[in-house]
Structures are given as C-alpha cells and as structure tokens.
Design brief:
The protein is an alpha+beta fold. It has helices spanning 13-21, 39-44, 64-75, 95-102, and strands at residues 2-9, 25-34, 51-59, 84-89. Helix 1 runs antiparallel to helix 3 (64-75).
C-alpha cells in the first residue's frame, strides 16, 4: 500500500479521481488547495494556476504503474500545467496522519 498524492487543477480533479478510483483503492479524499509558492517554483513544477485540488488516495502497490500510465495517456498528464502526482510508502506518514486519513 502507498499514499498516492495528486495536486491538480480543479478542472482535472474529477477526471484524476475517476482514474485513480478505477483501480483498487482503500481510501480517497479531495481537499481544496491554494498555491502559495513563488511563480518561479510554480513554473518549475508545472503548476501554472494557484487554485488546485489535493487528492489523497491509498492504493495497492500493483496499481500504481497503471494509474500513472492512465494519467499520462488519458489526461496528457506530463504536459505542463496538468499537475503533479507522486507516491509515498505508508510508513513515511505518522500514526496520527494515517488515523486522520482513515477517519
């Protein structure tokens, strides 16, 4: 299991959630977010607009590659401005953080 973190423009949020939800997930939530980084950092991370959604999903290790591939193929996710996605091992978050995610 891994924590799959996506930071995407609000316009792509439903599509990204649907792709992730198409695989076996144990948990998924979307949190409205606003960017506060300087414009140079936003450009470097391909985060052109400040209004975003933070999508947190707990996914099976076997599904991660499929999710990334679908994001790339169906949403052209590698294109600048389409957001960023990455995973963290579950042991990288604190007990309090994991309890918060599940409750």
């Amino acid at each position: 299991m891994k924590l799959f973190i996506s930071i995407v423009p609000k316009s792509l949020s439903d599509d990204v959630s649907a792709i992730i939800g198409g695989e076996k997930i144990d948990f998924q939530t979307t949190i409205p977010a606003l960017g506060t980084a300087p414009s140079e950092i936003l450009e470097a991370l391909s985060l052109g607009e400040a209004e975003r959604d933070l999508i947190l999903s707990i996914v099976d290790d076997d599904d991660i590659e499929k999710i990334f591939e679908r994001l790339k193929n169906e949403l052209d996710f590698l294109k600048s401005g389409h957001g960023v996605a990455f995973t963290l091992p579950m042991n990288a978050i604190t007990k309090m953080g994991s309890q918060y995610l599940y409750h």
